[in-house]
Amino acid sequence: MARTAIISDIHANYHALSAVIEDMRSMQCTDLVCLGDVVGYNAYPSKCLNYVRDLNCPVVKGNHDEEVVTPSNARMNSTAREAMDWTRNQLDETQLSWLARLQYQRIVRTDTGTTFSIVHSSLDHPKAWNYIINASDASNNFPRQFSHICFHGHTHAPKIFVWDGKHASEDYDNLHPLYLEGFTEFQPLSDLKYFINVGSVGQPRDSDPRACYGIYDTDLNLIIIKRVEYDIRAAQDAIRSVGLPEYLAERLEKGI
Length: 256
Ligand code: ZN
Prior knowledge:
The longest helix has 13 residues, at 14-26. α3 (63-69) packs across α4, α3 (63-69) crosses α5 and α8 (232-242) packs antiparallel against α9 (246-254). It is built from 9 helices and 11 strands. The strands form 2 sheets. Strands 3-4-5-9-6-7 form a 6-stranded mixed β-sheet, sandwiched between helices. A 5-stranded mixed β-sheet has the order 2-1-10-11-8. A hairpin with a 4-residue loop joins β10 (211-217) and β11. It has helices spanning 14-26, 45-55, 63-69, 78-90, 93-100, 135-141, 172-181, 232-242, 246-254, and strands spanning 3-7, 31-34, 105-109, 115-119, 149-152, 159-163, 168-170, 183-186, 193-197, 211-217, 222-228. The N and C termini lie far apart (35 Å). It has one domain: Purple Acid Phosphatase, chain A, domain 2. By secondary structure, it is α/β, with parallel strands linked by helices. The chain binds zinc ion. Zinc ion binds next to loops.
């Protein structure tokens, strides 16, 4: 079995990360990749960073990972900025230099020889941190995507974009069950390219507060996207106890 779990946008939410790790074990995932934004917003940046780092798995850099190392004041609202300044003080030099060394995009090869791409935002301008919201946005990514499948994050909302060689479209049919049952699975067609947003572990923004992650089973040619319940109250308590902005606690239970 070759099953890779794909996690993104953990954002220092250790309660959500723990629940997802437990779930991916129950789903018999053998490997894991991380699409960035390990830190920012929530109360456990050091713990989450150490956990992901010690897995020694493929990780790409997110905009929060970059911002905590190299403050730019770009495209961040005051709440995110306050959390970023707090986060920077929680990390030591070794942790910051690990974040600084992360690549913007990577090709991952599984034990069975399948390759796929990973990036935080999109492959056309990975350092520009563009938000891929719709098929029009995604159409810029595909000419730079040389693999059958690429996984990304950044918007904190799961999506499936498909490229037929000329046009990008959004696959609503295969994503629909995720909102009905908290679970979707589909088999990617070999003559199409897929650009798949696996949602966010630590701060979902699609009005479903449960943690979200993806699984790629290369033996079965199967993509799974799952929601996972976790202890939101405990994550909120942690935010309040360290003095991070109240809004960061409130948004967790709304999934916004
Ligand atoms: Zn993020």
